[in-house]
Structure formats: structure tokens, C-alpha cells
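---------- Forwarded message ----------

FYI, see the ABC transmembrane type-1 domain-containing protein record below. Original note from H. follows.
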Amino acid sequence: MQAFIERHKEESYAGYILAGPYLLYMLLLFFIPLGYIFLVSFYRNVPTGTMEAAFTLENYVKFLTSDLYMGALYTTVELSVVSTVFTILVSYPIAYFIVFSDWRYSQALTLLVIAPMLVGNVVRAFGWFALMGSGGAINTVLGLFGVQYTLLNTKPGMIIAISSVLMPFAVLILMSVLYTLDAELIEAAYNLGGNPIQTFVYVTLPLSLPGVIGATIISFVLTMGTFATAVFIGMPQVPMIAPFIYDVASTDLNWPLGAAMSFVLLAVSLALVYVYTLVADVGTQEVSA
């Protein structure tokens, strides 16, 4: 194997050879199934729970003209944007503190950051369900101050629960970027008379923007497909699109409509991510200039 690598490492196709196993894996287990689902989205549903091959847009029309489904899609986008912004605003200070703090136990906070990742989404969502319920700990504490407000089945409750899932990913991504910053640039900013706030605004934050952009995209994409949290915390008062796709495919056995709904969700997600990357690129260029 070593001799094969040494013999072909200078060839132009060497990169394709190394990426071959991954590309084959993605082709067989991602792109081909995705293509099949896309094809199914044009099939015609049969009431007996099957489908017949056809080329019809009725599934897309049914989804796009449904107030229920479009309302759920709008709520999904709204919660995804708000949850992502909230996650980044909370995660950046945590990552910054872990990387730059002189506190002797700051590195131990990394364990606390990744701890939620050791628990499955369903278990975590059920935990929030118990905490946010009318008899849960959060409602009990609020009651001590005379506040009668239940977070369960509300948008604020959804944002809190979703952000708890996203924060470990966001913090780790931001930490990986902050650790790679050139310490000499930060030190030079201080030597030139910059205070901590000026150094952060004009040096640290611009240099860490790639991490912010990456964490934002990952958080947004994960939220758009939220299922367990949506079922336990949001439904039915705060509907998101993923539970509806599940119900259409598994309960109604309408696979063509479920496939069409999935691809509309995918298209909206990709379009929003593309627009965000364009705006982020412009902002990064302006900061660099």
C-alpha cells in the first residue's frame, strides 16, 4: 500500500484515489437514495398505501397550497433563524472564555460543553418536556415569584430546547477557530494601545468570522430538520415541518407527498444557506478591507 501511494502521489488523479472510498460511500448511501426520493416525489399516491409511477406536480401543489403545511414551514424557518442567532450569541462568549481565560478550570468547561452530546435527542427533548411542563421545575420556580407562564408548547420554549442541542456544536466549532488565532496579532493590538474591547472588536472577532459563519450554517441546517424537540416541546401549538413529513409518510402512507415536502424543505434550507454565505462573504471582504 505504501509503495502504491509513493508511486502515484505526484499524479494529478492522486486526490481522486484518496477520496474514492468516501465518494463511493456518499454515492451509494446518500446520492442514490436522495435521487430515488426525488423521483418518488413526482409519483401519484394510491389510497391503499402504495404509489404508482407517474410524473405529476400534484404533490408539490398540494404542499405549497396548504395553509397548514406552509404555516409549519414558515414557523420552521422562523425558529431556525432565531434559535441559530441565540445559539451563536450564547456560544461565542463560552468558547472565548474557554480559550482565553486564565482560570485554572476553564478547560474543564469543555467537558460540560460536550456533555449534552452524550445524551440522545429524544431523551434530551423528554427532559425539557418534564422541566417545562405545568408541573415542571421551571414553572415551579417561576411560580415562587408570582409568574404564571408555561414554556411548553411555546416559541420561547422551543428556542431554549433547540439551542441546547446546537450549543455543543457551535462552541466546539468556535473554539477550534479561536485556538488557531495568531496570538502575536492580539498582543500587537494591546501594544498599540488597544483596550480589551477594541482588541476584540477590531482583531479577534474579524479573525474568528469563519468560525462564526461555520457554526451558524451548521446550527441552522440542524434546526431546519428538528424532529424530536418539535414533537415533545412544540407540537401542536408550535408546528414544525419535520413532524408533518413523518405523519404524512408513516401514518397517511403518502410517500410521494412526504418526498415532495422533504425536497421543498431541502430547497428552502439550501437557498437560505446560499443567501447567508453570499452576505457573509461580502461582510468578510468589507472587514478585511
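H. also flagged this: The CA atoms of residues 51 and 274 lie 34 Å apart.
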